[in-house]
Amino acid sequence: MKSSNNQHPLNSVSKHFNLQLVRFLPYLLFLAFGVTIGIIISFYLKSFSLQHTQFLHSSSSQINAPPPNTMPPPIEKPEVSDSNLNQEGPEEFTPPSNVVHNTQESIQPSIVVHDTKKFIQPSNHVVHNMKEFIHPSNVVHDMSDEELLWRASMTPKIREYPFDRVAKVAFMFLVRGPVPLAIFWERFFKGHEGYYSIYVHSNPSYNGSDPESSVFHGRRIPSKSGLTAVVTVRTRDGNRSRALRWLSQSWHTVLLSDFDIGSTKLVTIEGGAVAAGEESMKVEWGKFNMIEAERRLLANALLDFSNQRFILISESCIPLFNFSTIYSYLMNSTQSYVMAYDEDSLVGRGRYNPRMSPMVTLKQWRKGSQWFEMDRELALEVVSDKTYFPIFQEHCTRPCYADEHYLPTFVNIMFPEKNSNRSLTWVDWSKGGLHPTKYVRPEVTVAFLENLRNQKCEYNGQAYTNACFLFARKFLPTSLTRLMRFSPSVMHIQ
To answer: Which residues cross the membrane (predicted)?
Structure first.
């Protein structure tokens, strides 16, 4: 009995302990489960963090990938070099393959980098600012005629200029080599910098240069390459007139000087071939070459937005008034000066080619001097002409002379109300023949020059002015000494 009584307290304690253990067992199991899950998650996070860090380090050493939800990084401007300027077609640019993109949120397309030669300035003359774009300081470029005409034909739709602008006159010299009367022109331009621009188109074979102090220095525009040939004119009967007549019909260009029988001249032709014979020689002349040269001069001058008036000058041309007078006359004029008249003769209507019809009819056909002056609006139309230029280029062949008919006919058809139908350059054809009268030293007198300066003409369609002609030709280099002597007192050119 005593023994049983002694065991009762022990059983009671054991039962109490077991009861408490059963009560806390779920908590212990839940705690163990939580600790186990925590250890597993902690190990997984450490492993993932290590792999992610290694991946980012590897990626950043090759390329900086763009962050999520941001725009792609800017593409650097491709370097323009001779190698990629000569590539044909667009060059495709593909992002590196190791760049990871979020394809669900944004997809980066391939970027096409086009040939930049046709859309920017030439590779050797990059435009860095607005000033250089509107006032090109260098006339040298590597544009083809097609690219040049396209670039020059651009015109802003907004009439107001967002910069201070002084209107300038573009003097475009069409010469064979150097400007023969350069000293006289230097005096004419002196002191008027900023009010004029100079452009010189010379024979492609001419490699000379002007002194750095000259206004003509660095003003030669690129011209087409030519084929140089030695030409000898011979006729069996020694008839000089017949030889010159044939030359004028076959070689209608101002680059040709007078020939004597049996004389030899070095001349340049574009895309032609020469074959000499006992009685005659045949030249396969590039069509329309003089008009191409004139349009090339206009296009180069149009690149400067400040040029508002454009005057074509020959190598034997002189100004009859000082710069201020000529500048005021042109800037206040409401018309252009392209001589255009209808001449019912063999040298007028007789040169019309019926194949030009219906775009150009005989009624629209005009003749005139090639030495023009025009405003910017007309100059833009001339370099942009894709309608009448090809017609004349194809059908204005011997005996048609493009330099005497293209511009007069074009202006008569398109802009008759804006044209004065006269030239500002005086020349004497009164003696007849294939060439106008030439003036040498003894013929240049004060009375002669005063007479040229005082001839009445209509100005701006209504008022008459004594300044009918602003320029005159053909003055040979031997006349230079007298021109320099008389210019201060007669022309007021100091």
So the answer is: 21-45
